[in-house]
Amino acid sequence: MAEELILLDEWLSMFGMRARIALAEKGIKYEYKEEDLENKSQMLLKMNPIHKKIPVLIHKGKPISESIIIVEYIDEVWKDKVPFLPSDPYQKAQAKFWADFVNKKVGDVGGRIWAGKRDEIELAKKELIEGLKELENVLGDKPYFWW
Ligand SMILES: N[C@@H](CCC(=O)N[C@@H](CS)C(=O)NCC(=O)O)C(=O)O
Q1: Dihedral angle, C-alpha 125, 131, 137, 142, nearest 10 °
Q2: Where do the structural domains in the chain lie, given as residue ranges?
Q3: Which of 16, 22, 131, 142 has the smallest number of CB atoms closer than 10 Å to its CB?
Q4: Ligand 1 within 6 A of CB of 55
Q5: For residues 77 and 117, is the Cβ–Cβ distance under 8 A?
Q6: pLDDT of amino acid 26
Q7: Distance between CA atoms of 115 and 109, rounded to whole angstroms?
C-alpha cells in the first residue's frame, strides 16, 4: 500500500496533521514526504499546481488536495473502517460546520499570529483562544466530536 499512497506534508502544518490523523485512525500505511515550503519540490508543484500547498495525498499517482477533501476522500475509499462522519444528514452538517469553524477560527487566525504585526498578533491570539474554548465547549468530555 505504501508505494500507492504518498503524503506531501510539512510536520508543523495543522492541515497536514488532519490528513495524518485521518490515515492513522483508519490504520493506513503510506509514504510520508516532508516538504520544504521555502523550496517546494517539483512533485508538490506538479501535484498541486493551483495552490502549491501541502498537504497533498497521492493515491495510485492521482493527487488530492485540501485537507478536508483529503479526509473525506480517505473516509470514502477506506469504507470498511469506522466512518469519520455521522450518517444522519443533520449531524453530518453539524460536523462539517465545526470543521469549517476550525479552518476559520484556528487556521486563519493561526496564520495571522504567524505572519502578523505585534498589535495584530495580540488580537489574533485572543480570537484563537476564544475559538479553542468554543471547540472545548462543543466537544465536552467526548473522545470524538460526534460520538
Ligand atoms: N486550505 C488548505 C490550506 C493548506 C495550507 O495553508 N498549507 C500551507 C502550510 S500549513 C502551505 O502549504 N503553505 C505554503 C504556501 O502558502 O506557499 C488545506 O486545508 O489543505
Answers
A1: -100
A2: 2-77, 89-139
A3: 142
A4: yes
A5: no
A6: 95
A7: 10
The x, y and z cell numbers of residue 80, run together, are 470498511
- Asked if CATH classification 1.20.1050.10 holds for the domain at 89-139, the reply, yes or no, is yes
31, 3 Cβ separation under 8 angstroms: yes
Distance from the alpha carbon of residue 31 to the mean position of ligand 1, in angstroms: 19
Dihedral angle of Cα 5, 11, 15, 20, to the nearest 10 degrees: 40
Q: Which three cell numbers stand for residue 66?
A: 485540501
The three cell numbers locating residue 120:
495584530
Q: What is the pLDDT of residues 82-93, one digit of tens each?
A: 899 989 999 999
Does the 2-77 domain belong in CATH 3.40.30.10? yes
Residue type present at position 103:
N
Q: What is the Å distance from ligand 1's center to 55 Cα?
A: 7
Omega before 55 within 30 of 0, i.e. cis: yes
The three grid cell numbers given for residue 147, joined into one nine-digit string = 460520538
